Amino acid sequence: MNEDLYWIGIDIANGLLSGTMLGGYYAVISIGLALNFGVMRQVNLAHGDWLIVAAYLAVAFLGIANVSPFWTLAGVIPVMYGVGWLIQRVLLARVSVQAAERRGMAPSIGLMSPLLVTFGMSIVIGQGLLALFDANAQAIRNDLSYAAVRLGEDLSVSTLRLVFFVIAVAMLIAVQTFLNTTHAGRAIRAAADDPEVAALMGMHPARVHAVASGISLATAGVAGVMIGMSRSFQPFDGPTFLLVAFGVVILGGLGSMTGALVGGVILGITQVLSGTYFGPSAQLVGGYILILLVLAVKPQGLFSK
Amino acid sequence: MRRPVLKSLPLAVLAAWSLSAVDAFAADACTITVGRVVPVTGPLIDMGRETPWLDDNKVKPVNAAGGLQVGSQKCKVVYKIYDSKGTMAGSGEAATRAILQDKVDVILAQGTPDTTNAPSDLCERYQIPCITSDTPIEAWLLGPDGKPKTYKYTHHFFFQVPDLITNHVGMIKALPGGFNGSIGYLYPNDPDGTIFAMLFDPAFKKEGWKPTDPGRFAQGLPDFSSIINSFKRNKVEVVTGVLAPPDLQNYLQQAAQANFKPKMYIIDKGTGYPEPMKAIGKAGVDILSVNFWSPAFPGKSKYGGYDGKGLVDAYEKQNPGKNYSPPLAYTDAMYDVLFDALQRAGTKDRDALLKAIGETDLDSVVGRIKFNEQHYSVQPLGGAQWHEVGGKLVKENVYNAVYPSVKKTAEMKLYQSAK
């Protein structure tokens, strides 16, 4: 009897704790997608694949210098920022809503084309990674992935996930502070609210968007290194993470940064708890049902402005 | 005296020339084209990793010697690789191309039902001799209705499922220090997971063991903590399942974090191959799985003269930094079966060749191959455990009660008990 009670307590505590930590991991994966949508009204279908690119980049860096995996961030973040800036500037800016309007096309084309372009990009990235790295499962070796902070005999928190949670919060604060207090951040928000008026005020929406896209992929860089540290990955793993990111962004509200964290945590807790009480087969389903419920009741998401 | 010689000289030259012309023509006509259907890209790449090294290893020496002696002729062997992409559709397309477009003489296909079954069916349809392996016999033999298919043109060799069950039950019984009877399942909701659960659950229950079955879960499950807690709660000592490498890694990490350490893991799928195990790293040490091939297997290759160890040594010497994986040996044996049958048939004529393949009784690096009425040959298996030897992961054969001919290369250990 007492033992049953003990396990009931453990189940709940583990659900909340593991779920929250899982949520931090989900949030880091999703922040880039939320930012992309919030600023440019653009859905980047290649988001998941860019995460995997970042993971491979980290592997490549570690191949050159044998350092702690966290140091690879110093290389991955700038490279991913550059890539994000570049694809926005030379590729996506040509098919954006503004570009469509400039050419006298319907704005709906400007909404549709980036979807198609990023969908194609997703395929190209997968195949490109396969050609460059072959299909071997890769992993970023580290000592933390098997370590845990022990809270009791049957209750513990993954050290790595705890670190990710801290990173998620830090990243969120950093991005939010950047958007709120710096000139570039304000420009990004202005361009998001009304690109035409922003342009009239002397801003250059295309440049602003490129910066936003760069930041988005820089966060994807952090997420990619994280993914690589917690599991093995292969060239075509990207779309799975895109799905997770979509779920989180829908829950938290499209474009909301805080929403990404809270959405991630809610999704994580729901998954772990439904797995505990309805069997592991219910874990992912529980998360999807939650997303459906939120879509039905509050389609703009829980934290949408 | 000199005249006849002079007179006959041009004739002799002519005769010699015409003879060699016939020869050349004949050699051309007797070239044997082999269509190799293998996963070179896609999820099953571990099954096709050694291609084309192993093809060259087999074919080049034969061609360098002028060809294979088939009847009175020396026949060159030409192979072409068709990527199955590791999918049913991909392997079907690959075999169709080989048969209809390139008109190969024979198909050799390998690597899970996804790569062997469609080519087998197509060979039956187009009446082309076909040899397959690296798929458990039942997965190749039984049709969708669960009844054995009748193969006329395809021959298959690999291990059979009843042996696998005997092997795993035996390994658990051999658990050093005894077993408390509490066994945990990790069978996901995919074809392998469902079939393994269906086969093993009754066998374990028959032994009187008490299973903790969390049910069939989706691949890519993010959180294993509740499963691990239920294992802890029921004092599970043996955990068994079929997990794809990323899931296995995720599970092992969370088990380590929760400080859950059963005495034994028997996990199949991916665990037979060095690359996924390297990616998993230290936590993969001491995991048990079926050993469907290692150099511990008995037998010698007829065309090559080496045993399993010789083959592995040659591969690892010529491909520095790479470790062999089991399909290396099965492909080697497929070529042996083909060459041997060709020589006994004395022709590449389809019917004679088929008859000769059917009558195969040949020693190979995967043991003796002898096909039965239903066109398959049962090969041995054993119990493998990954040990760390001098900082390197080595697949040792630690259990051989089912096939004592497979040498035991190390003693079975409890899962990471020393640490």
Question: Ends of chain A: how far apart?
Answer: 49 Å
Residue fraction in strands of chain A: under 5%
What's the N-to-C terminus distance of chain B?
95 Å
Number of helices of chain B: 13
CATH topology of the largest domain in chain B: Rossmann fold
**Stretches of chain B where pLDDT falls below 50 for ≥5 residues?**
1-27
Overall tally of domains of chain A: 1
What's the CATH first level of the largest domain in chain B?
Answer: Alpha Beta
- Spatial arrangement of strands, main beta sheet of chain A: 1-2
In total, the number of strands of chain B is 17
Backbone CA Rg of chain A: 20 Å
For the sheet with most strands of chain A, the description reads: 2 strands, antiparallel
Q: Give the helix tally of chain A.
A: 12
State the CATH architecture of the largest domain in chain B: 3-Layer(aba) Sandwich
Which term fits the overall shape of chain A?
A: globular
For the biggest sheet of chain B, the summary is: 6 strands, parallel
User: What's the gyration radius of chain B in Å?
Assistant: 25 Å
Q: What class would the helix/strand composition of chain A place it in?
A: mainly alpha
Oligomer: heterodimer
Give the overall average pLDDT of chain A: 88
Helix-strand blueprint:
The complex is a heterodimer of chains A (305) and B (419).
Chain A: H1 2-40, H2 47-64, H3 72-90, H4 97-102, H5 107-133, E1 148-152, E2 155-158, H6 159-181, H7 183-193, H8 195-200, H9 205-230, H10 238-252, H11 257-278, H12 281-297
Antiparallel strand pairs in A: 1-2
Chain B: H1 2-29, E1 32-38, H2 53-64, E2 68-70, E3 73-75, E4 77-83, H3 88-101, E5 106-110, H4 112-126, E6 130-133, H5 137-141, E7 154-158, H6 161-173, E8 182-186, H7 191-206, E9 210-212, H8 225-233, E10 238-242, H9 245-257, E11 264-268, H10 274-280, E12 288-291, H11 308-318, H12 327-345, H13 350-358, E13 361-362, E14 369-370, E15 376-378, E16 382-389, E17 392-399
Parallel strand pairs in B: 1-4, 1-5, 5-6, 6-7, 7-15, 8-9, 8-10, 10-11
Antiparallel strand pairs in B: 2-3, 12-16, 13-14, 16-17
Helix pairs in contact in B: 2-12, 3-4, 9-10, 12-13
